[in-house]
Amino acid sequence: MHAGTIAGVNSAETPDCLIVTGMPGAGKSTVTRLVSERLPRSAWLDGDFVSRLVVSGRVWALGEPADEAARQVQLCNRNLCALANNFCDAGFTPVIDWVIPDRKQWDFFVSLLGARQVLFVVLAPGIEACRYRNTLRDPRERFDFGGYEDLDAAMRRELGDVGWWFDTSALTAEETADGIIREARRRAVVN
Question: Is residue 14 over pLDDT 90?
Answer without folding.
Answer: no
